[in-house]
Amino acid sequence: EKPIGCYLFSGPTGVGKTEVAKQLAASLGVELLRFDMSEYMERHTVSRLIGAPPGYVGFDQGGLLTDGVDQHPHCVVLLDEIEKAHPDLYNVLLQIMDHGRLTDHNGKQVNFRNVILIMTTNAGASDLAKQAFGFTRSKREGDDHEAINRQFAPEFRNRLDAIVSFGHLSVEVIGTVVEKFVLQLEAQLGDRDVTIELSEPAKTWLVQHGYDEQMGARPMARVIQEHIKKPLADEVLFGKLKSGGHVRVVLVKDEADETKEKIGFEFVEGPVTPKQEKLPARKRPPGKPKPGGPGGSKGPTSKGPLVKA
């Protein structure tokens, strides 16, 4: 009767805890219900998840969590930064993780047995920074788990299926993050018939200027926004990409300082990929000669119905 899984993602900021939940929902083809726990720091705000009790303001509106799961029984529920929520919320989660159901303000039981419950936390991030570097490297269990033990009660931790610790992103992972951002930008410009190609030197430059071990991948988003998205927006609206086209992201000399390099663009004219060759036309087999036609035998002529005398 429990949910499919109850997981706690722990680790520093910007390492992909929320993104993993999003990609999990996308891979499964189910709805993602995300709740920012910073909005539920006060005691009275917890009632917004299950609905206000009778006689209180907002009784007829229902709960965000109960209504969301009732409408989407198969979903991924993401509670972001769970450590910021009021302690009363943990009592609600205990019932969900133990029995797989929750009673809303109307007395209706909502089924959570087909739900994947994911909670993220930054508890122990400062301790984790001293021990973990990257996803694939082994990490000594220690101070980060002690911080989680101090933050969450034993009855809460005992109902979790797993505590997944995230380490800092490595340079190789940041390189894939750059490609992901560029692919997302190309998808946004698909309606404008604009395609983007990222050169290896430009990718290396973005990794060097957007990589921050402590802040994760969020600085990379700001670097791409400043050096790629804004200049491309001007070209799409007023420049060489008004009618679409292909642009190659490269490194060019900085006009202000020739010893430095910066991101530039090369606009490729003409078709980028060769058009698919047409298959040779198949010859039709010679048909039978038409009756009465050239080279054909005369067919029987219609003489009308025969009448017996």
Descriptors for this entry?
3-stranded mixed beta sheet, 5-stranded parallel beta sheet, 10 helices, 309 residues, alpha/beta, Rossmann fold, Helicase, Ruva Protein, domain 3, 10 strands, 33% helix
Q: How would you characterize this protein structure?
A:
The protein has 309 residues and is α/β, with parallel strands linked by helices. It folds into two domains: 5-165, Rossmann fold (3-Layer(aba) Sandwich); 171-268, Orthogonal Bundle (Helicase, Ruva Protein, domain 3), CATH 1.10.8.60. The protein has ten helices and ten strands. It has helices at 17-28, 47-50, 64-71, 88-99, 125-128, 143-151, 154-157, 171-188, 200-210, 218-238; strands at residues 5-10, 31-36, 75-80, 101-103, 109-111, 115-121, 162-165, 194-198, 245-253, 261-268. A five-stranded parallel beta sheet has the order 2-3-6-1-7, sandwiched between helices. It has a three-stranded mixed beta sheet with strand order 8-9-10. A hairpin with a 5-residue loop joins strand 4 and strand 5. The longest helix has 21 residues, at 218-238.
CATH topology of the largest domain: Rossmann fold
Architecture of the largest domain, CATH level 2?
A: 3-Layer(aba) Sandwich
Mean of pLDDT: 81
Q: Can you tell me the CATH class of the largest domain?
A: Alpha Beta
What percentage of the residues does DSSP assign to strands (E)?
15-25%
Class inferred from helices and paired strands: alpha/beta
Reading the helices and strands in chain order gives EHEHHEHEEEHHHEHEHHEE
Give the count of structural domains.
2
Give me the side-by-side strand order of the main sheet.
2-3-6-1-7
- How can the largest sheet be summarized? 5 strands, parallel
The 3D shape can be described as elongated
Distance between the termini: 94 Å
Instruction: Please report the number of helical segments.
Output: 10
Rg over CA atoms, rounded to whole Å, is 32 Å
Contiguous runs where pLDDT drops below 50 for at least 5 residues: 138-142, 274-280
